Sequence to fold (324 residues):
Amino acid sequence: MLCNDLDNYLAPKENCVRQPLGVQKQVAMTLYWLSSTTEYRTIGNLFGVGKSTVCESVHKVCNAIKDNLLQRYVSFPSGEDLKTVIKGYNDQWGFPNCGGAIDGTHVPIIAPAEAHGDYLNRKGYYSLVMQAVCDHKYIFRNINIGWPGRVHDARIFANSDILHMGENGTLFPNCDLKVQFQGREISMPIVLIGDPAYPLKPWLMKPFSNRTNLHRLQHDFSHRLSRARMTIQNSFGRLKGRWKCLSKRLDVDVQFACTVIATCVVLHNICELSNEIYRPEWNETNNEDNDNDDVLEEDIDATEYPSAKQIRDDLVLCFANDLL
Fold:
């Protein structure tokens, strides 16, 4: 399938002097490199080509996938597709009117020559950050790649298109879920769900942060939201489990590292959409994505978004009374 989709972009030119590499061989070498931690030289020996030929093919195929397949396989849900995502989160994860989960993950890289200190993350290694939104089936729906590892999730979010669309009211359609409770109507808009590092907004729900002072209903709400939010953690785990190049230090420049990450996201979505087998032994033994980033203070933006706090408080009551 990949070879058919990329044939027009990878096919050798007619005036090529040497015997050109076929599309299948270029794609095969690239998939081998992405799915392993093998060096170019070793792959060249396996495929009977030189090290530079492997490097050239990897760059060529990754750029072709990013430029021609990214928009096809990574798109934000809308229309009937959005209804399917909402139903999936409600049926499989017990969270109603949810359009996706958002979080960030670090991809290790070698120290860049310029401003390398910006890429040193809080865990002591150099990395790029990818912010992503996924759906209930572990398919990535939106990605933001390229921020240095030192940057906090909240800052990346503040500069993302997701925030811009959410604030402009163009992220989700106006399809509120309405229930009657104690003589008043409670309305829940379609929301994204995230961890406490993200701001609380009418279209973005997060758990309560100050766990020591939570009453039982707030704790139950946080547990229910966090259980549904595991979809994004599982998506990151499956992405890195399939494409091992994201688990080791990417020994390429920063710009191409962003291309490699985007390529792996496209291939991950293709695998999930095709119901490809994912083996448990591919899971990483030390998954840093399960460790939350530095958490912002509880309801730091509650005064700016009182409607968001009211929505969350209403959800706490609805969950406690099994209204949603």
User: Anything to note?
Assistant: The chain is about 45% helix and 15% strand. Strands lie at 98-108, 127-134, 140-148, 177-181, 184-188, 191-193, 204-205. The CA atoms of residues 243 and 264 lie 7 Å apart.
